[in-house]
Every structure is written in structure tokens, then in C-alpha cells.
């Protein structure tokens, strides 16, 4: 069995802690067995390793998440990058054809798809292994893992089986997120929550693509990714498919997609510079800001403050945040393989010039890539730590108080000897993260090549 771990969700329901580049699967809001903070992707990867499935797993994700994946997991993992951010059907097609053509798996091999964000115990993965062993007995087109409902939840789709009593059930139909009353009806009919975890033979996806005249080779899919339906696998395949079976899982399974569910796993009620009065009950506060938050007399609520915004919500209604945050502005905080940054200020001045100010932290022995920009100049002021700074073909040691001026088009990089904190002021007419042309990422490659560029004047003030 080969596994596609889907890691492309945006996590809008966990705003303002998550944003378009710091998605929910990377938030270190869980605790491991030793009480250390861990993220959803770290937890599930650790579990895959425990049952010896990690070696057969690829991660399918967007390019914007690559640095965070490698920062939080091992460097040797395989990540298949989506050419653009789309729904689950294109991602699964991409991952399947990668297995077939790049990994040379058999077309009869089982491909198992797992979302990155379920909160489960190890028996969830033991159930997957059991399902794989039973696949030949029923030979379904798709084999689903259904979750035994613990409530008439409106947050999940429902799988309605033909036969309630069978241990392996043939699927009669699917029902999308229903009203509470309909959910009760579906449960009475033996309905199971749709976990988003399922398996099929690799040739099933290959045949599906050919049948619908879609790109069916890995290279073609990469080049023509926009031609694949930008829809979920459920909608494109499952709702049109026959001979679908499901196996019921009655162990721990939670979708950590809302503040209500996620807060159940917090080991404290207050995080950051905040306090709760004794009159508060079942309320959690998370504060990433430097200013204090005091909550008095509020029950069953979540209060979250980050550089991206502030959320105050009744827990049961917290799912509505995905509809309330109508326009996601520039992410104000982002984690990278080398550290993190926070946006401190953004303004427009005369002649369409923009000014963006960031606070940047580069971890010890980490570095920014050797890069340049077309549309902006930068000024770096070193606040803390020491590092090696390269501008074009010159390397110097820098420390607190140094001011580094980087004109547009100049090649530059920096490595932290000790943890560095920098105030960066960008100025130009087009301040976007995409205006970064990276020449080298690895510091050894940077040191080996930086002297080959042309001479430029440079000064430290």
C-alpha cells in the first residue's frame, strides 16, 4: 500500500492563527506524549513512522508550504508539488501518477489517500492496514473508511450503506453536510461520517483519467494541471462511481478544523499575554500579540489574537469564521525553514511607492537564500545576534547595530552564526513575496559561487 498524504488545505476556519501561508496543519497547538508542542503534520508523520508506513508515503502539497514541511519534518521525505493550488481531485491524480511513473509502482498496487489533519490514535492506521488486507476479498473500485458518528454533526458528509449489519458495507449513496435533523435520519439508516480516507488500485485513477479524456501522464498533468476539474475527489469520482465499499472505524477520529474541536486538545486555557476571570467557564484565549488581553465573564468561547486579526466567537459558532473573513489580506506572520517573520507596518507613499516593515528571526546556523529582487530595495538593521552577510561578491560579519543596504538587482544572502533578529524595510512599487529570485539555497553552494558575480560597490553604515 502506497500513501498520498494531502497537505494543501488553507485552514480558514482557524483564522486568525492560520492564514494563506501558515495553514492549520503547521500550527504547533498540540502536545506529544512528552508534553512538547507539535503540529498536525508532525503528529501524523510520527504515527506513520510508528506503523512503518512513512517509507511508502508521499506528501502532495502547494509550493507555498514546502519550506514549512521540510522545517517540521525530515529533509529526506518526498513532496510532490502541485503546479497551482487546487482541490483534492487534481492533487490525488497528481500523486497517483507520480507513484506509477516516478516510483514505478504496479498499476495493481493500492493507493491510500489520507488528509493531513485528522486527530487519531495509532489504531486508525492499524485499521488501514486491515482494510488493505481485505481489499481483494471485495475488489471494490474505491474502499472508504467511514467513522461511526458520536453525534448528528452537521460538519461532515455522510456515507449511507446498503446493509447496516455487515462489517464491510457496500455504499448506497452519499449525503453532504446536512441539517441536524437529517443527520439524525442518516445515523438511523446506519450512516457513517466520511473521513476523507480511502484507497483504490492505481489503475483505477489511470483509467478514470483516460475515460474522461483528461491528462493521464505525470508530465502532462504537471503541464496541464489547470485542465483537471478543480473539484473534490468526492464530487468528481465518488458520486459518479459504483462498487464502492466502506469499513466502519469506531475509534478516536476528529477533524481538527474548527476552534471548538481543536480547543478540546489544549492543555491550558490561556496562551500568551492574557488572563481569564474566575467567572469564565470553558473559554480559551490564545494571544500572539505583545498587548495584553483580559477576558471577563465569557463562557463557552474562543478568543484568538494574532498579527492577522482578532477573533472572539462562541465555540459552537466558530466554524462560521470561514464565511465571515471575506478578504484575506497579506499574511502578517509566516514560518519558514530558516525561522519566521512578522509584518510590523505597511504603507503607501508618493508615486505609488510602497513601504513594508518586517521583523525577521533567523535561527542559529540557518540562512536566507542567495537572491535578488526586481522591484524593491531593502534595508536591514541587525537587532540581535551575529551572522555572515553576502552582497554580490563580498562577505562580511555583521552584528547588532549594523545597517545593510540592498539595492534592487543586487545579490544577497545572510547566515546566522547566532540567532539573528533583523528589522527589514522594503521599498518599491511592487512588494510581493514572489519578487524573490533565488540563485542558491544551501549555504555551501552560496559560499562556493558568490564570488563569481560582478563587482558592486557596497558599504555598511
TrEMBL record:
Domain Nucleotidyl transferase as annotated: residue spans: 3-265
Organism field: Lysinibacillus antri
Protein name: Cupin domain-containing protein
A Pfam family per the record: MannoseP_isomer
Gene Ontology terms for molecular function: mannose-1-phosphate guanylyltransferase (GTP) activity
Gene3D superfamilies (UniProt xref): Jelly Rolls, Spore Coat Polysaccharide Biosynthesis Protein SpsA, Chain A
Residue span(s) of domain Mannose-6-phosphate isomerase type II C-terminal: 326-439
GO BP annotations listed: GDP-mannose biosynthetic process; polysaccharide metabolic process
SUPFAM superfamilies xrefs: Nucleotide-diphospho-sugar transferases, RmlC-like cupins
Amino acid at each position: 500500500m502506497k500513501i498520498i498524504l494531502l497537505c494543501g488545505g488553507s485552514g480558514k476556519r482557524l483564522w486568525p492563527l492560520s492564514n494563506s501561508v501558515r495553514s492549520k496543519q503547521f500550527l504547533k497547538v498540540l502536545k506529544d506524549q512528552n508534553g512538547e508542542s507539535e503540529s498536525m503534520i508532525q503528529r501524523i508523520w510520527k504515527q506513520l513512522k510508528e506503523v512503518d508506513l512513512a517509507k511508502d508515503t508521499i506528501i502532495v502539497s502547494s509550493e507555498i508550504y514546502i519550506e514549512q514541511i521540510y522545517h517540521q519534518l525530515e529533509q529526506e521525505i518526498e513532496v510532490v508539488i502541485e503546479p497551482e493550488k487546487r482541490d483534492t481531485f487534481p492533487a490525488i491524480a497528481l500523486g497517483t501518477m507520480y507513484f506509477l511513473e516516478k516510483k514505478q509502482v504496479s498499476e495493481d498496487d493500492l493507493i491510500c489517500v489520507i488528509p493531513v489533519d485528522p486527530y487519531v490514535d495509532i489504531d486508525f492506521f492499524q485499521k488501514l492496514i486491515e482494510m488493505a488486507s481485505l481489499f481483494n476479498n471485495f475488489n471494490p473500485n474505491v474502499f472508504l473508511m467511514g467513522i461511526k458518528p458520536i453525534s448528528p454533526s452537521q460538519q461532515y458528509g455522510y456515507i449511507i450503506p446498503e446493509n447496516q449489519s455487515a462489517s464491510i458495507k457496500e455504499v448506497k449513496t452519499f449525503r453532504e453536510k446536512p441539517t441536524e435533523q437529517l443527520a439524525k435520519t442518516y445515523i438511523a439508516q446506519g450512516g457513517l461520517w466520511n473521513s476523507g480516507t480511502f484507497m483504490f488500485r492505481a489503475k483505477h485513477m489511470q483509467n478514470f483519467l483516460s475515460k474522461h479524456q483528461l491528462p493521464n501522464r505525470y508530465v502532462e498533468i504537471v503541464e496541464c494541471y489547470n485542465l483537471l476539474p478543480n473539484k473534490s475527489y468526492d464530487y468528481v469520482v465518488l458520486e459518479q462511481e459504483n462498487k464502492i465499499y466502506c469499513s466502519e472505524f469506531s475509534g478516536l477520529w476528529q477533524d481538527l478544523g474548527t476552534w471548538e474541536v481543536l480547543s478540546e486538545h489544549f492543555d491550558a486555557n490561556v496562551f500568551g499575554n492574557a488572563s481569564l476571570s474566575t467567572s469564565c467557564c470553558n473559554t480559551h484565549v490564545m494571544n500572539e500579540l505583545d498587548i495584553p488581553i483580559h477576558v471577563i465573564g465569557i463562557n463557552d468561547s474562543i478568543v484568538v489574537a494574532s498579527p492577522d486579526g482578532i477573533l472572539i466567537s462562541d465555540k459552537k459558532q466558530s466554524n462560521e469564521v470561514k464565511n465571515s473573513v471575506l478578504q484575506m489580506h497579506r499574511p502578517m506572520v509566516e514560518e519558514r525553514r530558516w525561522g519566521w517573520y512578522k509584518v510590523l507596518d505597511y504603507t503607501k507613499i508618493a508615486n505609488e511607492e510602497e513601504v513594508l516593515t518586517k521583523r525577521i528571526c533567523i535561527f542559529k546556523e540557518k540562512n536566507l537564500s542567495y537572491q535578488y529582487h526586481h522591484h524593491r530595495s531593502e534595508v536591514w538593521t541587525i537587532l540581535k545576534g551575529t551572522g555572515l552577510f553576502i552582497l554580490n561578491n563580498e562577505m562580511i560579519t555583521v552584528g547588532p547595530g549594523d545597517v545593510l543596504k540592498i539595492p534592487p538587482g543586487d545579490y544577497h544572502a545572510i547566515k546566522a552564526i547566532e540567532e539573528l533578529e533583523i528589522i527589514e524595510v522594503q521599498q518599491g512599487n511592487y512588494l510581493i513575496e514572489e519578487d524573490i529570485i533565488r540563485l542558491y539555497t544551501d549555504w555551501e553552494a552560496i559560499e562556493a559561487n558568490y564570488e563569481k558575480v560582478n563587482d558592486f560597490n557596497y558599504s555598511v553604515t
